[in-house]
Amino acid sequence: MDALAILILVVALVGLGLVAAVTGLIVGRRRGPKPLPNTHTDVIVKPPAEAAEDEPPVELSSPPATIEPETEVPEELLEEAPALERPEGTASRLVRLRQRLAGSQGALGRGLLALLSRDRLDEDTWESIEDTLLTADIGVGPTQELVERLRTRMRVEGGTGTDARTVLREELLALVDPSMDRRLQVSGADGQPGVVLVVGVNGAGKTTTVGKISRILVAEDHSVVLGAADTFRAAAVEQLATWGERVGVEVVRGPEGTDPASVAFEAVKEGVTRGVDTVIVDTAGRLQNKAGLMDELGKVKRVIEKQAPVTEVLLVLDATTGQNGMIQARVFSEVVDVTGIVLTKLDGSAKGGIVVAVQRELGVPVKLVGLGEGADDLAPFDAGAFVDALLG
Ligand code: GDP
Known about the structure:
Bound molecules: guanosine-5'-diphosphate
Oligomer: single chain
Largest sheet: 8 strands, mixed
Helix content: 40-55%
């Protein structure tokens, strides 16, 4: 009996041991490995867009701005929260876009500098300099002027130790003309809103530019109303409505085919009634013929001015269209008093010389440049920064 009791005791003890071991394993697995310090307590977010795949996640000790909605915000609160975007702040936008400008235009300046820094500036070299400038769409007249000035200065100052970079920078800057007033007239007089009329051919980037300008104004605490007067393209009206919704800006629109002038009139009327700072009016860009265009834009401007004066007429030009774009620019400047140029798609073109060509042709300054399809990819044009971007 004693032996049997001992056997039972041993079996019971072994059984208990096994159960304890298995339970321990499971509990151990649930608990997981001992956490490394500081890897699981903070909320971890990746900054949108910029974060590269292989970058370590950024750890924030205070609550992050972007939280996964499903896990952090209750459904009912999400529905009530306004889905407004906050446009990018001016400082970060300008730094980012300056780099992008240097990326697309840098090759031009570097090419010129390399040619101008040669030991011997012979005829072949001057010809290559001329070709480089013409290829960058600076235009024949300005190219010849620049080459002439560079020849003279390099001959006179070449031996005195003045470096080619300094000469090239000064001459390019003179050509771009830093003295032009490039401020956007977005405010009206006597408590009236500023009225910005945006014109240009379809596809140049008009609607996108209207949306981008409204974001810049919102970021600077201006109140804005948009007028979707490109009523011939239903998509343009929808597109502008979306731009407005994203930043909480009212968009005045009419059904497809409505008279553009009546939409423009209503938009400015709404702006006046609400006492906003700026009304921006998108227009149709059908380049049917000069008379038709003149009738259409002339009427839009006339009816707007029954409410408030137009303070700025911006011509939107696609920088990648070269000579064709210049011809369009000429037609528009003949039918409406253009006060500023917006050059779009400079991110996709190394032909920044068009800045010089179009300013010469129309006698009005480039005021803004489009540098991408992103919502905040629009920058004020600054002559010094532009030349610096060219020279890298
Ligand atoms: P609209 O017909 O003149 O109103 O032209 P849209 O505003 O519809 O623009 C036509 C296309 O150009 C769209 O795909 C825009 O995203 C694109 N676009 C506009 N501005 C820029 C820019 O600065 N850079 C680039 N890469 N694309 C742009």
